[in-house]
Each structure stands twice: as structure tokens, then as C-alpha cells.
């Protein structure tokens, strides 16, 4: 029997599929292997080259900083002023506002729930006259730089599905997230740092924190090189960047070269793009040994800059620290920075822990916008502030026990704000009804927001797709309309 035919007949199923793969990863490896021993940037890196079809048109934004507030900030206590809530305080919610609506299991049916007035008073700010609560004085001071959307709505009524819908377009895990789509469609701008970075924080001593699941920054079915890289809140931002004791940079370089050759053999045999990703990640880690220490060194920041972000800016793991890191990351070419802060789940702590949340996030958020504006970066950097849904205008708990006032999850109308990146400053877009219960004007769904973000990046959301399991997927699923009214 012919030995070649005999060998083919003995191939395992795994080998057959492996050798029959597309071999797309070979192109990425070829460009990576052009680097010299010092890790110099190749002239044509596959990790740097954007998808050939994008951008589709001139972009207003080059990068995104997403200040995601896990746990759902209460729109009726922070941004959406409704005088009628005070008038109806302690009275049952009108039936026509909640009939047939689904709330979380903690509320169940809303029938008979009592209306709750805002915890702190509101006032108008700036030339735009935007209404902002006394909870957020620093954000109120920059109201004319912000674009408020007060007509957001979603289907999700629980945290993880709601967060995942905002970040990936699906309530179920497994889809690529916004930063991964950006990396896939637009490529990366730096070889020294990942193109998509995530940082998380939580207010100290909070009782209402949310879990940070890895799928919030996943690449889903896209190649894993597009996944977000999470920077830790203590110690080394990224594990295992430092060389072990006794290992010099030259020895490590040699080990990586030898390891790349071994991986290349498997890549040639199977053509699996994930092997090329593995090689690329080793190379990225090698470069980050130099870039990350410089990135995290705040010693050259002026005191005036540090003061913008508040007193906890130098404490690693705080929201303020992460906001300053976000600015430093985008200055160095990172395309998407996802800053996630948990603790907004005030089911019974509106009069206690909500104060802590606002204290920890208000000044750093406003400081980031001011810092970007002063450096000329706000024009092409889009900043987003918001959570996965809002909170009910009616109370959760006993209205006679003020220290335990709370609000449940509310998907039918809520608020977020944007700044820079081609959005209209000083604008309030959309309206909720007189109780902040339902959208009354210019509704904006989660998929509409996603379509708009991609539009600002120069991407037609219907064209940024990836074929998986027999059909083309996109961030906006099969929905989404660009919200033209907020575009500058």
C-alpha cells in the first residue's frame, strides 16, 4: 500500500479537521516573525491592520472610554427630574403606568407600590439648563459638555443579562463585545499595549456589588486576540509580566523565540488561527514589560491634573485611578478602554450607599472629561457613562423606614450621558413620562445606541459582521438605528 495513502487513512478526526482548516493564522504569524530579536515593530503587522472594509466613512471618534456603572444608577435620583414624584410621594403607583409590565422578581407585580420622591433636590446647570441632582455636583459643573439621553430602554430586567446586552448585543454570553468588534473592524494602533483594556472597581464597604464576569470583555466567536485584557486593581496590573529571579531579558527573548518556533510547527500543521494568537500574545507580553511600568507611573502628572480626578486618584483599584489610567491608555494608542464600577444596586440603600457611589464616581468622571478636553483629546474620544437599566420610580421597602429606602430594577426608561467623539454637547435628547416610568419621546434602544457608537467610529453597523455557525452576526444583532439627533 502506498505509505502516503496509508498515513492519510490513519489520520484522526482531530487531525483531519486541523489540517483542513483555513490556515488564516499563517498570515498573522508570517508578519510577526519578521520582527527582530528586540521585538521591533514589523512593517506590516496582521495585528495592526484593520479589516479591509472599515472604516466605511469619515469617523468622528477614534477611540472609546466606556464608564460602565454596574448595578444600574437610579435615573430619577440623579438625572431625570420629575416634580410629580414629590407630589405623589407615598401614594400608590397609577395603574396605567405599570399595567402589563414585567419587573424583577423582587418587585413582582408593581400594583400598589408606593411612589418615592427623589432623595436629593435637582437644579438646572449651565447654558443648556440640564437638570442634575445634588448627588452629582462635579458632573453638573460640566453639563454643557455632555449629551444626555433620557429615553434609553431595554428588555433586560436583571444585571448580568442587562450588562451583556449593552456590551455585546445579546443577553446571553458568547457574543463579541464592543471593544472586540472595534479591534476586529478597525485594527489596533499600538504594538506596545493591547487594543482593548478593561479595569474594574467597587466602592469600599458596599453591600450591593456586582460580579465582573469575563464575558463582559470577551471576543466571543471572534479570534481571541480581540478579547479585552483586564488590568488588575492591586499589585502588577497584568500577571507574569516580570521576569522570574535569575532570568535576564536576553534569556527570556531566547525562550520566546524557541517557543515561537515550536508553535510555528503546529501552526503549519493545523493552520489554527488561535496558535497565531498565542504567539502574538507572548510577543505582546514581552513588549508590555517595558510599556506597562511607564504607563502606571503617575509621577509626571501635574498636581492640577491629579486634582481633577479627586483624592483617591493615586490609589490603585479605585475608580479615580482607573479613569486617569484610561486617559493614559488612549494617549498611547489603546482603542477601547472599559472602566467598570460596581455598587449601584440600591435595593435598600438609597439614603446611605448611594452617597458613597456618587462620591467615588462623580469627580473622576467629570475630571476625565475635563482632562481630555484640555489636552485636545475629547473631540475624537467618545466617553460614555451609564448602567444596564434604571431604577423604579416607586419604592422597594417600607416608606416609613427612610434608612432602608430602595428602588428595584427598571428597564422601561433611564438615562445615560456621552461626551465628545462627535456627539452634541449641551443636549438633552429624549424624554420619559412625568413619573420617569416609560419613554415619552424619541426612544433609544440598546441596539440604537450601539449602532450610533459604531457610526461615530466610521462604521456602518450593518456591515461589520462575522460569519459563525452558518450566519452573519453583528453587534446590533438584527436591530439598531443610528440616533442622528445626538450627532454633532
How does this model look, in words?
- This protein is α/β, with parallel strands linked by helices and 488 residues long.
- The chain folds into two domains: 10-41 and 244-295, no CATH class; 63-237 and 303-486, Alkaline Phosphatase, subunit A, CATH 3.40.720.10.
- It has helices at 3-9, 13-19, 25-32, 75-78, 83-87, 95-98, 137-141, 159-168, 178-186, 249-270, 273-295, 303-309, 319-331, 353-374, 446-456; strands at 63-70, 122-125, 130-133, 146-153, 196-202, 229-231, 336-342, 381-386, 390-391, 409-410, 414-419, 427-429, 431-432, 439-441, 444-445, 466-468, 471-473.
- A hairpin with a 4-residue loop joins strand 2 and strand 3.
- Helix 10 packs antiparallel against helix 11 (273-295), helix 12 packs antiparallel against helix 14 and helix 13 runs parallel beside helix 14 (353-374).
- The longest helix has 23 residues, at 273-295.
- The radius of gyration is 24 Å and the shape is globular.
- Mean pLDDT is 89; it is low at 21-48.
Going by helix content, strand content and strand pairing, the class is alpha/beta
Overall 3D form: globular
CATH topology of the largest domain, by name, is Alkaline Phosphatase, subunit A
**CATH class descriptor name of the largest domain:** Alpha Beta
Helical content class: 25-40%
CATH architecture of the largest domain: 3-Layer(aba) Sandwich
Low-confidence stretches: 21-48
Instruction: Tell me the name of the CATH homologous superfamily of the largest domain.
Output: Alkaline Phosphatase, subunit A
Cα end-to-end separation: 73 Å
Secondary structure tally, helices: 15
What kind of sheet is the major sheet? Answer: 9 strands, mixed
Provide the β-strand percentage band. Answer: 5-15%
* Number of separate structural domains: 2
